[in-house]
Amino acid sequence: MNPLDLTGRVAVVTGGGTGIGAATARLLAEHGADLLIASRTEAELEEVASSIRAATGRRCAVQRTDVKQEADIVRMVERAIEEFGQIDILVNNAGGTRLGPLEDLPTRGWDSIFELNVRGPFLCTREVGRHMIERRSGAIVNVSSGAGLTGVKGGAHYSAAKSGLQMFTRVTAAEWGQYGIRCNCVAVGVVASERAEAAWEVAQIDQQRIAALVPLGRSGTPTEVAWPILFLASDAASYVSGQTFAVDGGPNLSG
After folding, report:
1. CA 79 to CA 45: how far, in whole Å?
2. Which of 117, 150, 176, 192 could, after both became Cys, cross-link 181 (CB 3.0–4.6 A)?
3. How far apart are CA 63 and CA 69, in angstroms?
4. What residues in the chain have per-residue pLDDT under 70?
5. Are 10 and 66 in contact (CB under 8 A)?
6. Contact (Cβ atoms closer than 8 angstroms) between residue 249 and residue 211
7. CB distance 182 to 133 below 8 Å
8. Strand, coil or helix: what is 188?
9. For position 200, what pLDDT does the model report?
10. How many CB atoms are located within 10 Å of the residue 22 CB?
11. Cα-to-chain-centroid distance, residue 194
12. Which of 43, 38, 46, 30 is nearest to 13 (CA)?
């Protein structure tokens, strides 16, 4: 048996139109999963879904979803059940931030980051979890950030939100383990996704300077994050739950 084989399983991936989400969706499909991918931009979803269908022959549905909107999440889950009849894997990948100094951080800015990075995954987990509990099986993978482990200056809101997501992962695993549901988390470091590279260019950030701070000496790629997600979603991690794994190229230590 291949413990990474996902044949017969259905995965829902939020933020599936670009970057880590798109790479994860492709890798899950390559290992046999059928998928529903969701994000706010339908054109990006359709492009990814078409490439997945052509490359793997797997079914891949798309659903325009803003994870800040509860009604959108409810509809996303309903669509997945209508399309496939089950949900076996949930990847809460949608997230992000805009950095800024704490003294200038508006209340709405704080709330918005928590809505995207904590409330959204909570709503997705709750809605999908109801089906997983009924089936008494499932795997949930939350995508966090190194900011949730060590913090980042200019990102008090983002660091706090991602730290909260990591604790949410731990409690979900503790409460739902009795139903055969596993919940884990990846804390991602510097990854050169399309949107990250665009943001660095706008902010005039030197990518080589960022990479020099990583012990491995380079930025990561979306696919390098997708592989740990595949592991955690598969039977290869059948006795792993409630954990947060750093996928960051190594610790940046002084001394």
Report:
1. 15
2. 176
3. 13
4. 196-204
5. no
6. no
7. no
8. strand
9. 61
10. 28
11. 16
12. 38
Q: Any idea which residues carry the catalytic annotation?
A: 158
Instruction: Give the dihedral of Cα atoms 146, 149, 150, 154; nearest 10 deg.
Output: 60
Residue type, 226: A
Taking the C-alpha atoms of residue 164 and residue 84, their distance in angstroms, rounded to an integer, is 31
User: How does strand 181-188 pair with strand 10-14?
Assistant: unpaired
* The pTM of the whole model exceeds 0.85: yes
Q: Return the amino acid letter for 203.
A: A
**Residue 151: predicted pLDDT:** 94
- Copy the structure tokens of residue 181: 């549901």
69: CB partners within 8 A, 6+ apart: none
pLDDT at res. 1: 86
Residue with tokens 């006795």: 239
Please tell me the distance from the alpha carbon of residue 119 to that of residue 211, in angstroms, as a whole number.
31
CA dihedral 104, 196, 116, 128 (to 10 degrees): -170
Tokens of 57: 């022959």
